[in-house]
Amino acid sequence: MKFTKAEIDAIIEASPRTFVPINKLVLSQDYQARAGGSTPKMSITELAASIKECGVLQNLIVVEGARGRYEVCAGGRRLDALALLAGNGDLADNYPVPVLIVPADRALIASLSENCFHIPMHPADEYMAFAKLIGQGKSVEDVAAAFGVTPLVVKRRMKLATVSPKLMALFREDQIGLDCLMVLAAVDDHQKQEQTWAALPSWNRRPDYLRQLLTQGEIESDRDAVAKYVTLKAYEQAGGALRRDLFSDDDKKVYLLDVPLLEKLATDKLQKRAKQIAAEGWKWVDVRVRYAFDEYVKYGELRKTKRQPDAEEATALEDLDGRIAALHAQMETLADEDGDEDTFYQLEGETEGLEEQRKALDETLSVWPADLMAQAGCVVHVGHNGAVAVKYGLIRPEDRSDMVQAARQASENGTDDPLVSLPSPKTRPVHSEKLVRCLTAHRVAAVQAELLDRPDVALAAITAHLAQKTFRGNDLYYCRSENVFAISATDSQSELRSAAEDMVASAAWAKLQAERTAWAERLPENLEEIFPWLLAQEQATVLRLLTFVVAVTVTGIYGTEPERQSNEALARALGLDMTQWWTATGPSYFNHVSKARILEVVTEAVDANAASPLAALKKDAVVTGAEQTLAGTGWLPAVLRVQALPTAGECSESLPGEEAEPAMAE
User: Fold this and answer.
1) Partners of 97 in the β-ladder
2) Does 375 lie in the same domain as 449?
3) Does residue 375 lie within any of the structural domains?
4) Is 458 buried (19+), middle (13-18) or exposed (0-12) by CB count in 10 A?
5) How far apart (Å, rounded) are the C-alpha atoms in residues 175 and 192?
6) Is residue 597 part of a domain?
7) In this structure, what are the phi and psi dihedrals at residue 41, rounded to the nearest 5 degrees?
8) Fewer C-beta within 10 Å: the chain N or C terminus?
9) Is this model's pTM higher than 0.70 or not?
10) Same-domain status, 31 and 98
11) How far apart are CA 341 and CA 4, in angstroms?
């Protein structure tokens, strides 16, 4: 059954409007369209504040009840708000309330009509209305009191009203959520609001990502280390611009807008600490707001030395060591006897405290070498925790030579500890990574080819390899395979072809492939049958196969020229002569290096007179000339040469603090 508008209008027209005291009104149990308790209670306080300010603007709908009372069938929230005001003493018990009295048989229709045909106000209209009230001269506190909300709620609604009209229209159309609208309202620039929203991808319109884009270039006072160090109070006293986020759960959160001012304040504050550091005897002290690793990557570092403890310190160390040892003994006794757990933890706490004291005392024995501090410096900066931090003992590139000399002098005076750590000077490599990989691949192939004819060397090499793994220990073995032996082998065939485009045309490759083909034809097709097959062969056959499989696993391809190659010892044992396997030509070498490098090679291989006529030629002609000039010389780049074993007299000592490059593990 559908009620027509005419029927509803007739009911209202026939119903008298009057006023009824609050104490005569009760909530109807029979004629409400809404079930009791289904109305949200959170807004009753706000509604009460509105009624207190403006009165009851819309009458309640009632029916006549027993004993002179009236049952409210529409307007239950208003009745609750009125009861709240009366209970607080803001309204009299007999305060007259405007009502519309309807017949009982039409009461449910009237209640349903009021609830169904009511169109709630859009939140955007609410925000604009709050802003208009303030614009008419109302104070934030007055508006808050009138609607029963806090002043912060009023300020937030006013702020939401300042969002760009374009974005507010999208909000009305449910294309922007309230959570994103609050983020947009945090900034006042409409253009920035619109541009930032437009830049958001449709799949990532999250409030946190939107906030990240909007606040680029701003500093969060509660998270940024420099802001914590300067303090918000000092920044504001200096006239720094800031922005407060009304919608943040943390009312102390502030965004600092003047980054140069913040950094100036931090720098000025750091100067005091810098003066103290300079007075310690360092050559220089830099002040940086933040420590940038890239700025000092080329700097070396001075290391602390350990001084001998004086009598008092030695006694203290001995005492601490004794007390710590005694506590450990007590703890072990308790553990062995399954003693009291609380006592054990108490002893453990005492031990940790003494160990901290021991550590602190030990740290006081580490000092900067006074004679070297004059060649090094420090950087005073703000640490990640918002406190002053100091990077001590940096060595500028221009001070490197003086520091090396001073460190050498200190080592001659009996200092055994390495005093300096200097970065290796970066120079442009003579050979590109691609060329080094190509050259070292040819070297590996040549070693493999040579090894095919030396089963004695292959046997010694694999035995040494296994012995190294055995006696090195099992620290790196996290799991074991189901194989009989924990030995792996990887054929380097594909790696050689990948590293050197001309590998297939080389003599070494041809020899290796011939041997591979011969064994492929000889071995059983079923690899599981290789073991019984080998048992039936002569030892020479087994050794020959071992030699082949060992040879094809030799590695040693590099991207940059190493000081020592992993296969160096093997190449030396084989008497490797790379001139038998590789020749410098245009495609193999000269096309891949500079003209200046070609002239250096000709000078080295022949003499300067041979290189001189080539200097005036273009690159192609220089390549051709170099090929002809070097023919038959047997010249090899350093990466293809086999180094001789150094004698005892040729071994040089490295400067303390400068470590030689470790040999690559085979």
Assistant:
1) 20
2) no
3) yes
4) buried
5) 18
6) no
7) -95, -10
8) N
9) no
10) yes
11) 83
